[in-house]
Specification:
Helix content is 13%, strand content 34%. The chain contains two helices and seven strands. The termini are far apart. The structure holds FE2/S2 (inorganic) cluster. One of its GO terms (molecular function) is 2 iron, 2 sulfur cluster binding.
C-alpha cells in the first residue's frame, strides 16, 4: 500500500511505502525535510498534521494541547493514510 503525503502550502507531494515514517519517506524522495536526531528527541522534525492518520511505535513526548493542535514527530510517525502536513506553525 502506498500513501501520498502533501506538504502545504508549498504543495510538495511524495509517496510513502507501508510502514514508513513521514521523515523516512521524505528523505527517500530527496525532500529537504528538517531533521537531526531521527529518534524522537530533538523536535527538529515537528510538523503539523492537517488531515490523515499516523501511528507511533513509541508515543512521543507531546502535551495534550500539542496533540490537539496536530503536532507530530515526522521521524516517529508511521503513515497510515494519505496525509496533508504543514512545516510552519
Ligand atoms: S529528527 Fe529529532 S525528533 Fe525527529
Amino acid at each position: 500500500m502506498t500513501y501520498t503525503v502533501t506538504i502545504t502550502p508549498e504543495n510538495i507531494a511524495f509517496d510513502v511505502e507501508n510502514g514508513q515514517t513521514i521523515l523516512e519517506a521524505a528523505l527517500n524522495n530527496n525532500i529537504r525535510f528538517p531533521n537531526r536526531c531521527q529518534v524522537g528527541a530533538c523536535a527538529a522534525c515537528l510538523c503539523r498534521l492537517l488531515t490523515g492518520r499516523v501511528k507511533y511505535h513509541l508515543e512521543p513526548m507531546l502535551t495534550e494541547a500539542e496533540k490537539a493542535q496536530g503536532w507530530v514527530f515526522a521521524c516517529q510517525a508511521v503513515v497510515e493514510s494519505d496525509l496533508k502536513i504543514s512545516l510552519s506553525e
